[in-house]
Amino acid sequence: MALRVRTLTPEEHLAFLNTLDSASFLQTPAWGVVKREWRSESIGWVDEADGDKVLGAGLVLYRRLPKMRRSLAYLPEGPVIDWSDPDLSRWLTPLVEHLSSQGAFGVRMGPPVVTRRWSAATVKAALAEGNARRLGEVPADHTDHIALGVAEQLRALGWRPPAQTTSGFAVGQPRYVFQLPLEDRDEEAVLAGMNQLWRRNIRKAAKAGVQVTYGGLDDLPAFHELYVHTARRDHFTPRPLSYFETMMKALSGEDPDRFRLYLAHHEGDLVAATIGVRVGTHVWYSYGASSTHKREVRASNAIQWRMIQDALAVGARVYDLRGITDTLDPNDPHIGLLQFKLGTGGQAVEYLGEWDLPISRLLYSAFDLYMRRRG
């Protein structure tokens, strides 16, 4: 079967995604609306002999180089194709041809392919022993050899990983994430898998009277105020309120169950807030904020537990706490985030990471230099 790539309407794109158990929310048509500083395009793979049936899909975000008409084509956590195909050139060659015709000087993609998994127990043991400084140095509980074959194919086709920053996080989307498996589990089983501190903090929040509710568009300013407070405390650059307003409208407009704002109050004070995103059987903890005041009421644990309960209620298979770094260094400032997520009893998961293909090597080199200087 010879494949070609064509532009899809948002309706065609969404219809294809709805045939799957899940896909990254970064590969939904609505995400192109959220990332409005990029030009977006929905694309689909079809059989050249029968162009109606969509066999794969992707959301492409185009970012122009400064003072240039050419763009980087970016498919975050995508595309959604058959990554187990032993001949990935069938999919990737027509992709590159299409993107080149759209003026792309290079392509960056993030194959949604898991390479390794480490249980919470394995990671905790590695932290206690102190012999490894990086997660990749720890023997994994599971290694996917098909995924390793994907990496070999990509290299043979000229793709390469982009340069890494010094922050411990990937250039674009995180390569390492933390996930809590939910399939064939109930609340009792999930609670039993958590560590003692998490269970105690969930009970403590309930006893203290922390109330977790859902919020709407009118509640986003309160969320954002707490989010900015969190950014100042934890030293990251916050997104503007308008970003979250666009995100809520776009994702909820595509599917009313796609976006949910959670608010945790204690005696009338907003002490924690989160944003959850769902596509099919996969639920993501996307953004979070917490107050430095009243941390003793453990609202962050309470709000996470409510999100997990909701994920179980809709039959989700995975609750995804998103990015972690691969550091196991006890002196690294990112280690606290890993330790918090470890308490859920889930898994550290390594994806294949993002890969680049230069179409114009001269322009790609200029872009690479530009990004290195920014980093």
TrEMBL record:
Single GO molecular function: aminoacyltransferase activity
Alphabetic keyword roster: Acyltransferase, Cell shape, Cell wall biogenesis/degradation, Peptidoglycan synthesis, Transferase
SUPFAM superfamilies the UniProt entry points to: Acyl-CoA N-acyltransferases (Nat)
Gene Ontology BP terms: cell wall organization; peptidoglycan biosynthetic process; regulation of cell shape
PROSITE patterns: FEMABX
Lineage top rank: taxon: Bacteria
Family as reported in the entry's similarity comment: Belongs to the FemABX family.
Name of the protein this chain belongs to: Lipid II:glycine glycyltransferase (Peptidoglycan interpeptide bridge formation enzyme)
Species of provenance: Thermasporomyces composti
Species classification: Bacteria, Bacillati, Actinomycetota, Actinomycetes, Propionibacteriales
